[in-house]
Amino acid sequence: MTRVLVRNPHSGDRKRSLRAKELAEKRGFDVRNSTAPGETLTLAREAAEEGAAAVVACGGDGTLNEVVRGVDEADGLGRTTLGVVPAGTGNDFADNVGIRSVEHAFKVLDSGRERRLDMGMVRTSSGRTDVDERPRPFLNSCVCGLTAEASTRTRPDLKKRLGVVAYVLSTMQHSRGFEGLQLDVRAGENRDPVWQGEAVMLLVGNGRRFPGEARRQANMEDGLLNVVIIEDVPAIDYLSKGAADKLLRRGASHLTRVKVPHLVVDASKPRQFSLDGEMVERRHLEADARQGAMRFAVGESYQPTPEETRADR
């Protein structure tokens, strides 16, 4: 059966993408190249509708998100193996599932090693009837606040030159003029109150744990979202060295953490939400963990139940 590589030729430094194309063609993949923004979604949907055995994203986290959305729109998640070849600026999800390089990705795909992984899914509302409210997935995280809004100001040339460090710099540059988020956060089937007030950031993780985790992989098979709300902390200089560590330190009084299968967020006005780097502006958002929704090719270092230290719990 056909294996399809959906390739974003403009991801990252482009060199890894070209290498991926070469390796894919040698292995008999059907390589489909996007030629316009958003076309990776269409190519992935078409591949799934045609019955491809595997649909693999070649690019960064944004490309992977679009590929998963395309397969989902074709109702293909149950029958199609998903994979990723890390060729973008940010390759967080690939790292979380144990994919270390372009070459390693193809070894993993050839091995047939896969797991049923959770997928985050959001439903949003802007109050406008002309906005498409179709549910959208996220694999790594859904972020609202300082980091999300700063990422929209990150220059493409800076991303190309500095990679993920560019987002950090933009965040720090933007922080002095950031207006806090007025949020009402609820969870569970009964929409029980979790938190209400002014926040700096709302972090919702599927493949990522946040505070004090040093980018550790979350449990992606437990059917739970890892939620962190960060209140405004006037005493922290966001531009100082180590500011991020202070902001996210475990046990801090300005952090609220919960693990829930369902989350409801209402903002006082439309705010930017980053879904694996893809931006939507909404006032209302509902997020669910779809347990075991994806059949995903994973590396040998992937941990189905990653060990949590006492500080992580």
Radius of gyration using CA atoms only: 19 Å
CATH topology of the largest domain: Tumour Suppressor Smad4
Quickly give the structural class.
alpha+beta
Let me know the number of strands.
13
Distance between the termini: 43 Å
Task: Tell me the domain tally.
Answer: 2
Please give the CATH class of the largest domain.
Mainly Beta
Largest sheet geometry: 13 strands, mixed
- CATH architecture of the largest domain, by name, is Sandwich
The share of residues in extended strands comes to: 25-35%
The poorly predicted ranges are 309-313
Shape: globular
Instruction: List the total number of helices.
Output: 9
Which H/E pattern describes the elements? EHEHEHEHHEEEHHHEEEHEEE
Helicity range: 25-40%
Explain what you see.
Its cofactor is Mg(2+). Keywords: Kinase, Lipid biosynthesis, Lipid metabolism, Magnesium, Metal-binding, Phospholipid biosynthesis, Phospholipid metabolism, Transferase. Residues 1-126 form the DAGKc domain. It comes from Halogranum gelatinilyticum. One of its GO terms (molecular function) is ATP binding. The termini are far apart. This protein is 25% helix and 35% strand. With 313 residues, it is of the alpha+beta class. Helix 2 packs across helix 3. The chain has two domains: 3-112, Probable inorganic polyphosphate/atp-NAD kinase, domain 1 (Rossmann fold, 3-Layer(aba) Sandwich), CATH 3.40.50.10330; 120-292, Tumour Suppressor Smad4, CATH 2.60.200. The longest helix is centred in the first third of the chain and has 13 residues, at 61-73. Strands 1, 2, 3, 4, 5, 6, 7, 8, 9, 10, 11, 12 and 13 form a 13-stranded mixed sheet that branches. The model is unreliable at 309-313 (pLDDT under 50). It has helices at residues 15-26, 39-49, 61-73, 92-96, 102-111, 146-151, 156-162, 165-174, 243-247, and strands at 3-7, 30-33, 54-59, 81-86, 114-125, 136-138, 141-145, 181-187, 192-205, 225-231, 255-260, 262-275, 278-297. The radius of gyration is 19 Å and the shape is globular.
